[in-house]
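Lab manual, section 2.4: Encoding a predicted structure.

Procedure: take the sequence of the chain (113 residues), apply the prediction step described in section 2.3, and record the output as structure tokens. A sample record is shown.
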Amino acid sequence: MRVLITILALLIFSMPVYAETCPVCGQELPPTEPNIQVLKNIDGSIKQWTEISDNGKRVDNYTYYKDGEVNEISKKVYNSKDALTDNKTVKHYTDGKQPTVLDASIFEGEVSK
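Recorded output:
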């Protein structure tokens, strides 16, 4: 469970933050609070976590093993033009092996920078 919390914290705090500037004076604008939407399964486990802000959105999809433990967390980050900028999956294991991060953008070639 501690590993899951650590991975979730890493995913949450690894979302890129883009500073916006005022188009008139050029000063950096303060960040706005993201709109967070959470979809849950019938058993109360998280199915999808979405954060929407002025800079874009981040969508995390969760899959679970039959015993209820997290299997994979898929993280996709989109910019303000809804173009995919980051695509990673965290694979969890039930045998005590540390979770691994797969950068799907390397394999798919679909991420636009």
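Check your result against the sample. Residues 109-113 have pLDDT under 50 and may be disordered.
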